Write a sequence for this structure.
């Protein structure tokens, strides 16, 4: 049994040591409060950054660049283009919104545009000098630099899907002509008779181009996307240039010229005079300027399209999207069928230069539309 004295001594001791302990804690408590406050501030700031600065997803599309003037486009045609751009963009947005990948968004958006006779890709492809339709396409995965490309196929309904199969199911990057068609058949892709690609409008374009001994282009399609996982992808599909000869292949299936994607920098899809895009390695050059010179996506795209290609006589444009969701829609031609959207509610669809032809219900672009 403890005596009363012992008990008091003990409890006094206990009181003293608990006092010391509490004091200690008080000292530490100050630090803990500071640590907790700092962590909370960082978390709130981090969340704020995510909401305000980096969209969860972003997407841009194009339907070709060139001499696209309001006076040459009937109201009805203009409306059809705007509606098609809107529907393709909405498809991409829905895929990304529901957690789909940027590659899926790019492929599906381009398939829709390939199936539409308005664009120079798939169904609406232009004719070669000899009266065929030879289709080119490519796709690139920015997360691992894998790429697939197809050139000069005549019977594949959706060349963008063939490009993706080449990327994922073959050991090659680019296939062409009959060999590419054989691979498409093996992969179970939809094949069509060459008459599927006949459209009166493109046939008439060929007759005019032959008369003038000229090559025209219009309506190549492309898409760049950033998904919820932070991965970029790019894809492009085209019939090439009206009146092209000798199995000419343009920039569209050339990785680094008409298409490029790297999570390190940006995703790019180009449209315009392909020979210039190849010689100026347009898509890769934009990425390189960002990587090595620290340019923004807008600065890099403008540098290449406006300052390098334009003075040399190269007409065209690009849609480019960086890993932070910033979008640049840059062209040196009169117009470019184009659209962009992101998870922050920025949305725009346009055809001509400046703000002409912007779809009325679109939101005004925010700072992500550079
Ligand atoms: N760049 C494509 C080509 O030269 C044509 C276009 O974009 O309109 O094949």
């Amino acid at each position: 049994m403890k005596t009363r004295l012992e008990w008091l001594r003990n409890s006094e001791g206990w009181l003293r040591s608990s006092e010391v302990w509490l004091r200690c804690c008080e000292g530490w408590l100050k630090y803990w409060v500071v640590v907790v406050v700092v962590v909370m501030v960082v978390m709130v700031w981090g969340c704020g950054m995510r909401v305000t600065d980096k969209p969860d997803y972003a997407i841009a599309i194009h339907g070709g660049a060139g001499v696209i003037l309001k006076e040459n486009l009937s109201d009805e045609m203009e409306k059809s283009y705007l509606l098609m751009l809107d529907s393709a963009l909405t498809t991409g947005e829905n895929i990304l919104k529901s957690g789909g990948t940027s590659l899926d968004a790019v492929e599906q958006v381009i398939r829709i545009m390939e199936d539409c006779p308005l664009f120079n890709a798939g169904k609406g492809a232009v004719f070669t000098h000899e009266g065929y339709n030879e289709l080119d396409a490519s796709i690139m995965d920015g997360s691992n630099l894998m790429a697939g490309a197809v050139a000069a196929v005549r019977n594949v309904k959706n060349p963008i899907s063939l490009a993706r199969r080449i990327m994922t199911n073959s050991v090659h990057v680019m296939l062409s002509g009959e060999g590419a068609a054989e691979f498409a058949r093996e992969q179970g892709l939809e094949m069509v008779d060459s008459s599927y690609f006949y459209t009166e409008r493109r046939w008439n374009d060929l007759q005019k181009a032959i008369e003038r001994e000229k090559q025209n282009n219009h309506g190549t399609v492309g898409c760049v996307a950033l998904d919820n996982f932070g991965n970029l992808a790019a894809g492009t599909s085209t019939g090439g240039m009206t009146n092209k000869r000798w199995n000419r292949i343009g920039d569209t299936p050339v990785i680094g010229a008409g298409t490029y994607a790297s999570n390190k920098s940006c995703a790019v899809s180009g449209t315009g005079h392909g020979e210039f895009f190849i010689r100026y390695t347009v898509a890769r050059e934009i990425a390189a300027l960002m990587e090595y010179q620290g340019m923004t996506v807008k600065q890099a795209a403008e540098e290449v399209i406006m300052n390098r290609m334009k003075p040399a006589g190269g007409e065209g444009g690009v849609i480019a999207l960086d890993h932070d969701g910033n979008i640049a829609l840059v062209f040196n031609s009169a117009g470019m069928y184009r659209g962009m959207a992101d998870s922050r509610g920025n949305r725009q669809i346009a055809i001509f230069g400046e703000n002409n032809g912007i779809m009325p219900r679109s939101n005004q672009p925010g700072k992500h539309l550079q």
Q: What stands out?
A: Residues 355-370 have pLDDT under 50 and may be disordered. The chain has two domains: 1-53, 57-350. Residues 64, 120, 217-218, 220, 238, 240-241, 250-252, 258, 271-274 surround aspartic acid (CB under 6 Å).
